[in-house]
Each structure stands twice: as C-alpha cells, then as structure tokens.
Amino acid sequence: xxxxxxxxxxxxxxxxxxxxxxxxxxxxxxxxxxxxxxxxxxxxxxxxxxxxxxxxxxxxxxxxxxxx
Length: 68
Hints:
Blueprint: H1 21-47, H2 52-58, H3 61-67
Helix pairs in contact: 1-3
C-alpha cells in the first residue's frame, strides 16, 4: 500500500487482483486491516526496546501515532 504522503508498507499476505472487483476490493480491505494490526503489534513491542526518536523514524505514521 502507498499513501498520498508517500508512506509505503507491504501486505503480510499478498492479494492477487483477480475475480469480481467487489470481492477483490474486500480482500484488499481485509488484508490491509490484518497487516496494520500486525505492524501495530510489532511497533508497540519495539517501542519500549528502542530509543524513541529512532523508533518513530522506523514506523509508518499511523503506527507512530497509535504507539505513542
């Protein structure tokens, strides 16, 4: 996924663009949520183990906001 601000992250499980568009977009939405949940858990885990400024620089904006 890529935001308008240029932040990017890869899905944990790739989603192939196949099938009906409604079903495909629902799969994209579900995988986006699942991946962000995993990234949030990883970010919170590393929050206490990393210097704060370094941690913020390593996270996408959403995770940095949720984690702090």
